[in-house]
Amino acid sequence: MNIKKIKNKRPDLLIVGAGPVGCVIAERAAKIKKWTSLVIDKRNHIAGNCYDEENKWGIRVHKYGPHYMRFKKRKIFNYVSKFTKWIKGNYIVKTNIKGKLYPIPINLTTIEKFFKKKFKNPNEAKKFINDLKIKKKKIQNSEDFILANLGKEIYENFYKNYTIKQWGIHPKNLNKSVVGRLPIRYNRDPYYVNQKLKVMPKKGYTNLFKNMLSDQKIEICLNTSYELLKKKIRPKVATIYTGPPDVFFNFKYGKLDWRSLEFKFNTLKRNKIQECVQINFPNDYKYTRKVEIKHVTKQKSKYSTVSYEFPKSSGDPYYPINNKKNIKLFAKYKSLIKKLEKKNIYFEGRLANYKYLNMDEVIECALKLFKKLKLKYK
Ligand SMILES: Cc1cc2nc3c(=O)[nH]c(=O)nc-3n(C[C@H](O)[C@H](O)[C@H](O)COP(=O)(O)OP(=O)(O)OC[C@H]3O[C@@H](n4cnc5c(N)ncnc54)[C@H](O)[C@@H]3O)c2cc1C
Question: Tens of pLDDT along 253-266?
Answer without folding.
Answer: 999 999 999 999 99
